[in-house]
């Protein structure tokens, strides 16, 4: 197990402004493409801008798109969200498909930074046995059996149920009462 979770923020799952309950509000406010007009590391960003940027702009009218050419720099996407968070993504030697995939990822995010989630329960003595599931103590033969199976389909509890016992007692008392009745 790595220790990277020690440096992450921690908290609970939050939904920005109850998003999706009334209508969906895209959280990506602005996207900035920084690229070089001649450097090879920015080639994928330039290809994306030439071919697919207009389609993205039409599909996402609530997102402002900025193009910022910079000399001798590799491509970078900077996403700014409604909650004020910024995310920088290096696009060094990406092709236009990779740029599109990462852009769709940034578009669908809420802007809340990745965090380590708290559990709602806490115990001072956590279990060392692992997580229980309904299949924990099942017979392993069930995994490869073809149902209906003669042996596995038999009832496990061969003792009569309480209802069966009561019905048997009732029948015995009925028979006993009918045999004790004097016939006139």
Automatic annotation (TrEMBL):
GO biological processes: mitochondrial translation
Keywords, comma-separated and alphabetical: Mitochondrion, Ribonucleoprotein, Ribosomal protein
Compartments, as annotated in UniProt: Mitochondrion
Any GO molecular function: structural constituent of ribosome
One GO term describing the cellular component: mitochondrial large ribosomal subunit
InterPro entries, sorted: Ribosomal_mL43, Ribosomal_mL43/mS25/NADH_DH, Thioredoxin-like_sf
Source taxon at top rank: Eukaryota
Domain Ribosomal protein/NADH dehydrogenase: from-to ranges: 37-110
Signal peptide: none
Transmembrane feature ranges: none
Family designation: Belongs to the mitochondrion-specific ribosomal protein mL43 family.
PANTHER family: 39S RIBOSOMAL PROTEIN L43 (PTHR21396), LARGE RIBOSOMAL SUBUNIT PROTEIN ML43 (PTHR21396:SF2)
Name of this chain's protein: Large ribosomal subunit protein mL43
Organism, scientific name: Eubosmina coregoni
This protein's encoding gene: EOG090X0FS9
